[in-house]
Recover the amino acids of this structure.
């Protein structure tokens, strides 16, 4: 069926937050108030609609992003609920890539937490407009003003309240709307209806102060409001709302709302704000990419009439329909049964079915159009990050760059019967999760799985054992070390074989040097002149380097932060082949690592520790003993907040350690920060050297 809603009445939004800020609870209320569901599920009961995986229900956390569609008033809202735990930050990354707006949920007690900063940076990266919702206003220690203050200081955002709480902590009972100048109080426990009352007298002065702050900050991005403000002219509600929307769409302003999702307060107002302030697809610039053959800049207008263009941001296996490819459609239309062109893989694929998702449930649709977020059934070659388009109008959109894993784990089957099942399970998990890596260590004859943290791998192993019914033995988590080089070297690689008949000949000269910017990874370029190596062999040279970089020369760890330039070489008209150049490049790269003096890198974590004052000295002493570097200290209510950097190798099982040090009263969160050189004595220990 054709879409019966206009583009200006469509919102593609994500719900993002630090873990335990109330993100899934907020989503659950949104679905209830929009009548998508008729019974509110709770995270703590394992009944939340969007947390459909067994692992999510057991742990009470969101692991995978889940999408759904609902309607509020006359607006269609496509929602993606994302994980809050740092180990699953890739789910947030790929969701933000395709969203037009986001609701960022903050805890009124903890304010801006480490993962809050991470998701905010991710939203900045993709220029996603945002509104902020300060949740848990009913909790002891809730501080609305502090949340806004931390948003401005830590996130560097131009944020201002458009609501203020009526009461706080256990006395939180309603919301004062700054723009409408009224008090809104839920009529019943579920908060389905709101009673509008005048603002109580004791809040009049406070309201005036917040209104003044709102106008000042909105005026920064609105010439009209600034003119009225300077000349002391009246500013209407309509003018303010229009200026807020313009500021949000332009990423110059963030309106802040408040409430308590668990107590059913404030969610309808969040839905109103989504419709009023977050952009429709047509409010944003045209999608940009490049033509695959010419590499020329391409643009697609946001319209059903434009040639079809979509981006695959997620792949998932469904036990009933098979492989689901989640696609955001940026332009044009597509019907079930039509062919699409994967411009990334340069393959034609057939879309057998199109489904609209509601968590793990599907609704068949005949057609999808510009602005839709749907799942395609039947695509065999399409992976996360691939562009889908019409073959006659090819375009490639910017792919998603995923972070390197930091934790390794050895896994092996108990019997040969399970080897095939394990291989199948690992292929499926890799297909679904680009941050999950699988390698084979030839020295130990072990399969190594790598991920973003201990919890990430724990969930993967749990799925392998239960979902795929594999009997396997699992080792202990290990640090995912990397190798790099100190010096620039020029190295020649030759691969020559002659054993009767056609021989093999490949000859390359590579310049290998450290990257100027850490975290750049492996880069390749060529500066050949005069056709010394035919163009068709250059991709093979690159493939040989990538293959060799998977295993370094020190401890067979992957190589990173190395720039490789192909500067010279030669070929044989008869004996040269793609495999010969791949082997020559691979051998040259490996020898270059030896001559360039390889060294070991380790993952460094950005950590935040929340600790009572009484235990601060003990925690700091222990932290320093773990090669930690304290970067700052702050206060949050009656507890201290420590921020610092620490090697991952030193904080395995840190949850139990800090619990023991503080009688269970401290907590921490951490996320990957960077890779740094390992001290020589520790490097020797890791490598088994004296």
């Amino acid at each position: 069926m054709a879409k019966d809603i206009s583009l200006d009445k469509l919102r593609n939004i994500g719900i993002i937050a630090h873990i335990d800020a109330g993100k899934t609870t907020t989503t659950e209320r949104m679905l209830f108030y929009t009548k998508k569901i008729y019974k509110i599920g709770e995270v703590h009961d394992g009944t939340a609609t969007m947390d459909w995986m067994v692992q999510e229900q057991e742990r009470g956390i969101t692991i995978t992003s889940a999408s759904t569609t609902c309607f509020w008033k006359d607006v269609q809202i496509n929602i993606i609920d994302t994980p809050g735990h740092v180990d699953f930050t890739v789910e947030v990354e790929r969701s933000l890539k395709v969203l037009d707006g986001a609701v960022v949920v903050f805890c009124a007690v903890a304010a801006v937490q480490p993962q809050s900063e991470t998701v905010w940076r991710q939203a900045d990266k993709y220029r996603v407009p945002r509104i902020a919702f300060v949740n848990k206003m009913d909790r002891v220690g809730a501080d609305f003003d502090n949340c806004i203050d931390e948003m401005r200081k830590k996130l560097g955002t131009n944020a201002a309240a458009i609501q203020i709480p009526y009461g706080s902590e256990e006395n939180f009972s309603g919301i004062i709307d700054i723009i409408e100048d009224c008090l809104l109080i839920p009529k019943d426990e579920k908060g389905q209806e709101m009673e509008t009352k005048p603002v109580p007298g004791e809040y009049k002065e406070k309201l005036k102060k917040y209104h003044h702050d709102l106008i000042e900050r909105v005026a920064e991005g609105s010439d009209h409001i600034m003119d009225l403000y300077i000349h002391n002219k009246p500013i209407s509600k309509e003018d303010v709302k229009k200026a807020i929307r313009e500021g949000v769409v332009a990423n110059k302003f963030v309106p802040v709302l408040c409430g308590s999702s668990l107590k059913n307060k404030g969610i309808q107002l969040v839905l109103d704000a989504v419709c009023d302030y977050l952009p429709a697809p047509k409010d944003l610039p045209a999608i940009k990419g490049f033509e695959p053959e010419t590499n020329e800049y391409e643009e697609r207008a946001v319209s059903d009439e434009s040639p079809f263009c979509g981006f695959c941001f997620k792949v998932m296996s469904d036990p009933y329909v098979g492989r689901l490819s989640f696609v955001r459609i940026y332009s044009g239309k597509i019907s079930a049964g039509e062919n699409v062109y994967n411009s990334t893989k340069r393959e034609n694929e057939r879309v057998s079915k199109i489904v609209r998702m509601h968590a793990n449930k599907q609704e068949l649709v005949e057609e999808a159009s510009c602005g839709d977020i749907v799942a395609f059934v039947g695509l065999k070659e399409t992976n996360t990050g691939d562009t889908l388009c019409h073959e006659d109008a090819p375009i490639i959109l910017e792919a998603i760059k995923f972070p390197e894993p930091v934790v390794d784990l050895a896994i092996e089957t108990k019997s040969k019967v399970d080897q095939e099942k394990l291989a199948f399970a690992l292929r499926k998990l890799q297909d679904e999760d680009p941050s999950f890596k699988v390698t084979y260590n030839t020295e130990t004859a072990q399969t190594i799985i790598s991920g973003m943290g201990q919890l990430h791998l724990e969930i993967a192993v749990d799925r392998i054992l239960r979902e795929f019914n594999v009997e396997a033995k699992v080792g202990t988590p290990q640090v995912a070390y990397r190798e790099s080089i100190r010096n620039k070297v020029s190295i020649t690689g030759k691969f020559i074989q002659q054993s009767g008949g056609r021989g093999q000949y490949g000859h390359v000269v590579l310049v290998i040097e450290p990257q100027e910017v850490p975290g750049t990874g492996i880069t390749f370029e060529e500066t050949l002149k005069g056709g010394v190596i035919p163009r068709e062999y250059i991709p093979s040279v690159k493939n040989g380097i990538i293959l060799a970089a998977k295993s370094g020369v020190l401890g067979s760890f992957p190589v990173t932060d190395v720039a490789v330039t192909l500067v010279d070489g030669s070929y044989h008209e008869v004996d040269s082949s793609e495999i010969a150049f791949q082997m020559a490049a691979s051998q040259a790269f490996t020898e270059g690592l030896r001559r360039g003096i390889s060294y070991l890198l380790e993952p460094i974590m950005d950590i935040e520790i929340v600790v009572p004052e009484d235990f601060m000295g003990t925690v700091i002493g222990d932290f320093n003993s773990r090669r930690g570097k304290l970067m700052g200290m702050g206060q949050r209510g009656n507890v201290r907040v420590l921020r610092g950097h620490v090697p991952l190798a030193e904080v395995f099982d840190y949850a139990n350690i800090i619990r023991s040090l503080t009688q269970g009263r401290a907590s921490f969160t951490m996320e990957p920060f960077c890779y740094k050189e390992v001290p020589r004595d520790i490097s020797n220990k890791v490598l088994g050297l004296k």
Q: What stands out?
A: The CA atoms of residues 219 and 226 lie 5 Å apart. The chain has five domains: 10-283, 287-397, 407-480, 483-596, 602-687.
